[in-house]
Amino acid sequence: MPRITPFLWFDGQAEGAMNFYVGIFPNSKVLEVTRCGDAGPGPKGSVLVTSFELDGQRFNALNGGPNFKFNEAVSFVIECADQAEVDWYWERLSDGGSTNACGWLKDRFGVSWQVTPVLMLELLNDPDPGRAERAMRSMMSMTKFDIAALQAAADG
């Protein structure tokens, strides 16, 4: 059965990024590290491609050089069950990176993540348009999501 696997392009940081991510997400593991041989393209023994799983989702990472950079056009969403999960992922992924509005951050490698409580989507899709609007206004004022504040705002 075909599988869609994100393939990330790094400039010499593929192995470090893989180890960073595997150390954060549960049920994660290194699958394979492919190194350059005599034919290159990099120095013999240097990492070319890594394969790993983050909570069961397979990823590949390539040391492709400086030609391409990550941007916010592609991000990975982490759906968090509670505030403890939001805090856990936020603190670890933003360490050495930068944060932005509405639960977005860039990690130290430039990869964009959205650390989002499941409740946020439930509130935005609330059948009561007033609750949904109050939740949206609250969300727009946040960097890291505060679930209690979102719930309080929705409740009016």
Report how far the terminal alpha carbons are from each other: 48 Å
Instruction: Please report the first level of CATH classification, the CATH class of the largest domain.
Output: Alpha Beta
Task: Determine the structural class based on helices, strands and strand pairing.
Answer: alpha/beta
Low-confidence stretches: none
CATH architecture of the largest domain: Roll
Output the radius of gyration: 18 Å
Overall geometric form: elongated
Compute the number of helices: 5
> Beta-strand level of the residues, as a percent range?
25-35%
Strand neighbour order, sheet with most strands: 1-4-3-2
How many strand elements?
8
Order of helices and strands: EHEEEEHEEEHHH
Key phrases:
2,3-Dihydroxybiphenyl 1,2-Dioxygenase, domain 1, four-stranded mixed β-sheet, alpha/beta, elongated
What can you tell me about this protein's structure?
This protein has 156 residues and is an alpha/beta fold. The chain folds into 2 domains: 7-63, Signal recognition particle alu RNA binding heterodimer, srp9/1; 75-155, 2,3-Dihydroxybiphenyl 1,2-Dioxygenase, domain 1 (Roll), CATH 3.10.180.10. 31% of the residues lie in helices and 28% in strands. The protein is built from 5 helices and 8 strands. It has helices at 14-22, 83-94, 118-124, 129-140, 147-155; strands at 7-10, 29-35, 47-54, 57-63, 75-80, 98-99, 104-106, 112-117. The protein has a 4-stranded mixed sheet with strand order 1-4-3-2, covered by helices on one side. A 4-stranded mixed sheet has the order 5-8-7-6. The mean pLDDT is 96.
